[in-house]
Amino acid sequence: MKKVEYWVKIPFGPIHPGLEEPEKFILTLDGESIVNVDVKLGYNLRGIQWIAMRRNYVQIMYLAERICGICSFSHNHTYVRAVEEMAGIEVPERAEYIRVIIGELERIHSHLLNLGVIGHDIGYDTVLHLTWLAREKVMDVLEAISGNRVNYSMITIGGVRRDINEKRKRLILEMIEYYKKIMPQIEDIFLHDSTIEARLRDVATAPKKLALEMGAVGPTGRGSGIKEDARWSEGLGVYPDLGVKPILPQDVTGEKARGDVYDRVAVRIGELWQSLELIERALDQMPEGKIKTFPKDNVLLAKLKVMADGEGIGRYEAPRGELVHYVRGQKGKDGPLRWKMREPTFPNLFTIAKALEGNQLADVVVAIASIDPCLSCTDRVAVVKDGKRTILTEKDLLKLSIEKTREINPNIRGDPTPAGLGCLRGGLL
Amino acid sequence: MIWELLALLGIYAYVSIASLLYAGIDRKLVARMQRRIGPPILQPFYDFLKLASKETIVPNTANFMFKASPILMLATTIALLAYTPIGFKPLFATKGDIIVFIYLLTLADFFLVLGAISSGNPYAKVGASREIALLASREPAMMLGVFTVMWALSKHGVEKPFSLANLYEHNIWEFGPMAWVGGAVLIYVFMTWLASEVEAGFFNVPEAEQEIAEGPLVEYSGRYLAIIKLAESLKEFIAASLVVAILFPWGIEMPGLEGYVVNLLIHTAKVFAVLFVAKTVFRAVTGRLRVTEAVNLLWTRVFSASLVASLIIAMGVVM
């Protein structure tokens, strides 16, 4: 008896109670089994890069911070590093330590938030409330340091804006003691509760090969066994002195990485422990000294007008994965010519879409939650022309890029089609 | 006949209030377990009134059954009240009323499923198929448990054993140590069945808000949603009443109307206690399983336990 296949397509999103942000997955189902997942983006365009082209370097810091409400420091930090590289600005060592502290505090609250969301998506609301209650402590500390729970505005080009004095240091150390007390409970629940284990094991398994092909980054990539962490591989700031290293699933569970949701959760728990260590060491090793190179923003802007020339790239391991910002500036201008970001969610979404094949419908939401997606960071350009709306593909973007290059420099020879890229490259050489 | 209809109306009013009240208590208790304040205890009443006054939207893809199902579901549930033991024998107790009870309980779910697949929404269809899968998996264990008890009663000389009215005169605990062991196993069976019936914890699969946007209810709004919510609350009380009548039937001997009132209140307290265990605590300390895992659990553990309980009780009777 030949099995009759009856596939049904279900639109998952853009508005769905299981998704925190607008995105769309077209699920092809055979019963409850997933045959295929198509990802559609483009529902959350906010024009941030367009707005940035009308701002100066200092103003863009506040814009970058509001790309995402959860990894606000990460975006600000990465942008600032790109500008510092472009301008050749040195950062005082104490400021580097403060940056580490703020970055790790953000990682703690981001991971706790995500663990709660994963619990919620399998109907386990009690663990959601447990982790979110725990998260309040770190947000209180961030508020005490910066005056804001979410958009800290701590960082500036050439340093940080506020110092961590003895009182704040004591607050942070108290917070660390608090987390060392409750982390065993959180770890026990997420790694050993039978319901959670039943729901997270072997779900959306992304083997290492698939993760590498798709370019998975962050806990998603490390959950598949890829030993990569931008803080570690980049040798970023003072991170090498603090002993940061990529946390793989076997570091937490003792078992070889499979690349499922459970392993991604394990990586986050391991990173929570590591963040506490890093903060403690940073507080201990932090030297005295200045916290920023330029005391005033107007002086900073005047200096940037002279120093900002060329290109700069900032790389940082945000809680969700590797974040890259690119800026290009020109001497005499007070804002960048170009500012571009590559967010971790983009490759991770396609990794998870592929990994979901063969899983059940019930696994979709928790699998998506396990990569900790952020569409605010990710969303791409949608073009509305003559009332029609199209999503630009890779070929389209490449063609537009070549045409743009030709506009800028009409003398460049070569074919403006994608096939002509080789000629263009040859010409440049 | 008139008296019985009036009594049914009174029971319907009482059970509506009691079940919605427990829904409020349930939310409050779970919130406290999660260290939240939680909504007011009367929130389910406010929700019902608000839904009843809101707009009802019917999808273009829906057929007539979409509108008919909520009403049929509520009607079935009210009819079910006439066969439900609530501290005293059911209004329409006959020699085979347990059969009617089980049939009507299943029929109410069936109407919900019909409404879901009539809406034309793919999430509703997924929810409907999940509902049927769980229904088909939980009922055999419950029926085997119930019929074992009835069979044991008949073997001990009880006339008309397939009536729920008997449970207030004779119960499973009267028949010695083997029946106690079997009864203890049946507690697990009936409590898990009840959790599945009220869709708590592991079994919050057909609605599964985070997955399929409340499944069978996704297209309902306004009056129809209010009716379904009320019918579901009633069904919770009714299902818990069955568990209480079989396992914890004791009451107080008291004549006249006062006796009915007191026993009804005692029964309500027992229903609340049973629902506290099967619904409130269960959903606070567990997450949701996949439909395949839930079905597997119901067959491999609950049905097996029911079978074991039956064998133990049967051995007790035979010896």
TrEMBL record, chain A:
Residues annotated to bind Mg(2+): M341
Cofactors named for this entry: Ni(2+); Fe cation
Molecular function via GO: NAD binding; nickel cation binding; oxidoreductase activity, acting on NAD(P)H; quinone binding
Keyword set, alphabetical order: Iron, Magnesium, Metal-binding, Nickel, Oxidoreductase
Domain NADH-quinone oxidoreductase subunit D: 121-380
Residue positions binding Ni(2+): C68, C71, C374
Binding site residues for Fe cation: C71, C377
Gene3D superfamilies xref list: Cytochrome-c3 Hydrogenase, chain B
InterPro entries: ComplexI_49kDa-like, NADH_Q_OxRdtase_suD, Ni-dep_hyd_lsu, NiFe-Hase_large
Protein name (database record): Membrane bound hydrogenase, NiFe-hydrogenase large subunit 2
Organism: Pyrococcus yayanosii (strain CH1 / JCM 16557)
Automatic annotation (TrEMBL), chain B:
Topology versus the membrane: Multi-pass membrane protein
Source organism superkingdom: Archaea
GO cellular component assignments: plasma membrane
Keywords from the UniProt entry: Membrane, Transmembrane, Transmembrane helix
Spans through the membrane: 6-25, 64-86, 98-120, 178-195, 264-286, 298-318
Signal peptide: none
Compartment list: Membrane
Broad class of where this protein is predominantly found: membrane
This protein's name: Membrane bound hydrogenase, MbhM subunit
